[in-house]
Amino acid sequence: MDQTTKPTAAEMIKLVLEKRKIIDEATKGFNDLLRPYQEDIELLENLLGAEINRLGGQSIKTVYGTAYRSTVVSFRVADRNV
Length: 82
Description:
The chain is mainly alpha-helical. The chain has one helix at residues 9-55; strands at residues 59-62, 65-68.
């Protein structure tokens, strides 16, 4: 964008919308590229979880790393009057 002249409000809005469209299209393309890898990781993690369960343990250690079971702890506040 040229910094020597100030664009009008209409021009600035047009540019913002054009750039948002470019970003949205690029983001969609990137997410499409990642999808098969994310699906593979999810499948492998599920298979590792099943293997941990089959072995009756908490983890599987290998030379490449460790797959382990973890418990997520979360705290919530609920309104009793609702």
